[in-house]
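Bit of a strange request maybe. I'm writing a small parser for structure token strings and I need a real example to test against, not something I typed by hand. Could someone generate the tokens for this chain?
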Amino acid sequence: MATRLAVGQARRVSLASASLPAQVKRADYLDAFEVTVAESDARIPEALARAALEQSGTLIREGIRFAHRAFLLFHLGPASSPDHILGWRIVDSTPDAVHLQADSPLMSGTLILRRTNAATGQLITALHYKRPRAAAAVWRAIGPVHRRASNDQNLWMSLGRAA
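Reply from user aminoacidic:
Good idea to test on real output. This should exercise your parser:
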């Protein structure tokens, strides 16, 4: 039996049996984190993503944007754009999932935040390397920071607040 996490807590999960788009499954890097959401929280994944990424503390939010631009070289849109979440372009937003995309000369990034059930959200990160050697070298340095941040309760604290 899985341990029940408090609202806003996250843990890394396996995607072995997950239903994912074929392109995401073929990623050079793929991970997923599950986060507990209050069952009474009826926000759609786009609103949850905005809460977690755009309403997190300034240090976390700006640190993520800085790392995405300076190290991963992602071309991000305006932070205040309704077509972007933290600069990532919204490709699709449904009641079940929001699909975000960002590109750089090194890689293409995909973030998918989806509700797996009433009390659980899942953040999936997929990277497709355009320049495999350079992208892999950069990700070896940045990947551990990404995994710590994705598992950090400070990132997800806003999910415990009322919408």
